Amino acid sequence: MIPPVDASRNPLTKTHVPEFDGLRGIACLMVLLWHLVRLQIGHLSGWWGVVGLALSQAWSGVDLFFVLSGFLIIGSLLDRQHLPHQLQSFASARVFRLLPGYAALLAAFAAVRWFYSAHDQSNTIHSLLAGAYPGWVYACFGQSWVLGLSPQASGPTYGTPFLAVTWSLCAEMEYYVLAALVILYAPRNSRAAILVAMVLGAELFRAVMSTQASQLPLAVSVLPPARMDGFALGALAAFTIRSQTARDALRPVILPVWALLAVGFGFLTTLNSAPFGSFTSNFGYEWIDIFYAATLMLVALRSEQRHIRALGAGPLAWLGTISYSVYLCHQPVHALYTNLLGIPSAYLTLPEGLMYWLGDILAVLAVGLAGYLLVERPGIRLGARLRRAWRTDAMSASTFTAGPS
Predict the structure, then answer these.
(1) What share of residues in the chain are helix, strand, coil (percent, to 5)?
(2) Is 68 helix (H, G, I), strand (E, B) or coil?
């Protein structure tokens, strides 16, 4: 028998859900495992071959981030759409959370490039700095479009490792704008249809772009239309659990549905498909995103269960709290760490590989924590103060206009 939901633990009644921090931590951990473990394994044989196979879908941690964003952003807009200054509040929340860290990353890149061009005559880390786009591309969040539409006949490359991860931030910003337009301006009865069209459109877009894979190998991976189904599925999940009827119908079946999707995810893992393969980029992407959307709904609908509550405490929740800063810095820190110390690529299979990896991950977490404490958290607090000021002004204006004349 399924116990009744404790209202105090209902995610829909709380402004902050610790369990979702744990899911962010899982998404961040998957990205770290992909870049700092899976890509650091040389020849996939023996024990390391098993590890590499187990992590073959760890790259999809980015998709979990997209699904989470759709679920939380659309959910927040739905819950607050009746409040005054909603567009300003939404924009300030996103701007003050995302832009300080992004600006700090760009500033760090500029500083490192200037320092090494002036002082490093051996060009030790030249390869880490080469391949950057003009500044205006990063200023207008256009890097995912430039990256995805740039012919790369010799194979996929993300440009300078220092800024490679920012393609996903570009996609996120476009999804946020689309989310605001859908919730604040689209007719209520058309919102779900728009989100379903986004899911189907992403599938169609990937199918079309996969025919250009020889020249545009990253198009199905980094162009915003190719990944918008993750955001849209998360948004549809947010719509669904705000219906009491849907919650009552889904709560008894969500666990077996999730288990079935998990089996499919395991099947994709055994295929060991690369992110650029035709199977993964079409059917696989969709299955993975549906699995992650079901995971969110499982957490939201079964939040009273002990193993789900555990997501809201401990290392995963801590990693989720600082996940944005860690995500932004992990590739630059890894690139600087390995190049400055002369550590070869695919170092994990070396005798001293585990020692190299420990230093690598500790450096990433240390810089990510510093970025969160010094840049991201102050930005979040500043945005929150601004939104409180707007609400206070709106309440004052409402009281004044409603008062006696």
Answers:
(1) 75, 0, 25
(2) helix
Cα(254)–Cα(256) distance, integer angstroms: 6
* 360 within 8 A of 36, measured Cβ to Cβ: yes
Residue from 284, 300, 212 nearest 60 by CA: 284
3 state SS of 245: helix
Sign of the dihedral defined by the CA atoms of residues 392, 394, 396, 398, in that order: negative
User: What span, in angstroms and rounded, lies between the C-alpha atoms of 162 and 337?
Assistant: 12
pLDDT average, residue stretch 299-323: 90
Spans of all domains in the chain? 7-396
**Region at 345 (left for phi over 0; alpha for psi -120 to 50; beta for the rest):** beta
Asked if residue 228 lies in contact with residue 184, where contact means CB atoms within 8 angstroms, the answer is no
The answer on pLDDT for 263 being more than 50 is yes
Residue type, 311: L
Per-residue pLDDT of 40-99, as tens digits, reads 887 677 888 888 889 989 999 999 999 999 999 999 888 887 777 777 888 888 899 999
Angle at CA of residue 35, ends 30 and 40, nearest 5° = 125
Residue type at 360 in one-letter notation: D
> What residues have CB less than 8 Å from 97, skipping those under 6 apart?
324, 376, 379, 380, 383
Q: What is the pLDDT of residue 371?
A: 97
Residue bearing the bigger pLDDT, 373 or 125: 373
Between CA 254 and CA 236 the distance in angstroms is 15
Residue 388 is predicted with a pLDDT of: 81
